[in-house]
Amino acid sequence: MLSLVRQFVRLLTGKVDASEFALGIFFGVMLAMVPTREVDPATGFLGWNGAWLTLLAACLVLRASLPMTLVTALLVEPLERLALGRASFEVGRTLLDDVLPQAFGAGAAVRLPSWQLHTYWGLGSLVLGLALALPLSLGALFVLRRHLPAWRERLGRNRLVRLLGSSFLFRPIKWLLR
Amino acid sequence: MIRPPIRKGFLAITAFVVAAGTLGLVLGADRLFAYALRTWGPYAFLGQPVDFADSELAVLAGDAEVRELLVGTPEQPMLEVGRAALELSLPALLAGRLRVEDASLERTVLHLVVKEDGTLAFDPGPPPPEVQEADPLPPPEKPLPKQENRDLVQIVTEFWRRYQHYRPYYERLGGLFGGGDDEEEAGPAPLRFPGKPEYVAVAQAVAEGEPSGGFFVDHAGVVEFSWQTLDERTGEPILPALESFSMQVDRVGWAPDDVTAPAEWSGRALLGVGGELSFLLVQPRDGSPNTLQVEAVSLPIDEIADLAKWSFPYRIQGGEFDVTMDELRFADDLLEGEIQVELRNARLMPRRVSPPVLGVEPKEFCRLLNSALQRSPVRFVIRLGGTPSAPTFSVENDTDLADLLGGAVADEVRRRADAFVEEKKGELQERLQEELQDRLGDEAADLLGGQAEEALGNLLGGKKGPKRKR
Questions:
Q1: CA-to-CA distance for B220 and B222, rounded, in angstroms?
Q2: Which domain holds residue B414?
Q3: C-beta atoms of B11 and A110 within 8 A
Q4: Looking at CB atoms within 10 Å, which of B51, B105, B122, B290 has the fewest?
Q5: ipTM score over 0.90, yes or no
């Protein structure tokens, strides 16, 4: 937990810009919403949901803030457990049964089965996740672009923050996360 | 300054790991392959050790080769292969399909030994008592003789029945079809929201049935195959020695779209003691029935009957037999064709367990058959019908055994007479013509000319021969 706080503080006081924060929020929401395991047995990628693995790879390759991704995912996960998971399932059921043409579900099952888009939960979580993640990350982008420099300046003057951020242990991580 | 939204460090590390892994795989492929063969090979051969002189794996070409493969120990080998080679299609592999372009086994020797206690040499024996007590093996349908007195058919059948029943145990031990000593993995925790539409399940089932992917063999062959068998109870071989055996498999499996030719399995064997066996199985891809041709000629009965001397309800000695299946056609809902079995110079004797045949007591049946066999070969024609899962059999003239045997003899006599007439027809025709010419003189022959020849030719059922010139 202390390490997480250290990294988070360094990011706030460092060169991470608003878009990286926004991407972190986006991927945090998506990774928490989409199920990790395959929903339909024997159609995933080595037992994992291909869509979740793709999101994770995209998050690592794109310059999304990893601490922000983690924090967002940890915040959204309980909500997903409480209500959003059930809501995802219902959204997926409505889409596959009543809204989308049958060719979509059948095509997804045959051509891209590992993504689990042919399952109620798999499709619903992606759609609902996007519906939550896009406005959240865009809103964060808008707010952070306006206020991040001021926050950094204020935090940069704080002695405790300077102490936490100067540890040599985190320099390689900083390079990787750049 | 705007930075590109890519994490270069992460990409660099990923690329390095992938490149190092690929390089390691290419450079160390042979060693990895050899290690994998020695480690996992025994799981494919009932726990027998696997060793070989040399192995090669070309990852990028998709080729693998093993030379001087030995399964078992040098003192007690189970299988020896001079060269085993496999050529896979790499593009197909990358697309998720396994396509064997060529596979071959050369100089293969199978060692089959029945020990003095009447078990196969590679049989790991029955499971420990606690396993047997937990799940006892049901008794066989027919009582079997003591283990040490069983024939090969009974030994193999009983071994296979035990293996199937205690399969989980044998697979943990290192069974025929993989397994290993890993504990069974606990199933994954149940999902919170499983489910998919019914039409998706239908689409998946249809896609699975489409012959578009999976496993396909372009060509595979076994050449110079032989076996060495020994029954330690008698010191005699179990099976007649093979002089040669070869087998080919072509276009078998889920064919790619560009393959429309039928799948074919064919083989030919020559026995060292005489006799020949060949077969051809054709599986068309246009929905028409499969066809099977089998021809076994002059198989020595004494060499083969021992395999099933206690399984077959009659004792049979001496002579030879042929088995012919001209074109057996079969599909899921169809079975048609006939099997011809011809016995020559054989002698049948009843056993205590011999059942009556077509209402005739065993002794009488043997007397009739032996009497018929003394005169000439006896041929039975068994007609097949129904479906492969519910076949029907009918024997020609099966209403009466004497008719059956008489008919078999009469058929043979007729066949031989026809062959004799066919062979002698030309000669008779020529002799008759010469006789005519001698008796009537050249004038008469010239006068009648072609008319006489035509008349004689028609009389004998032959074609008109060329005019003789003097």
A1: 7
A2: 407-460
A3: no
A4: B51
A5: no
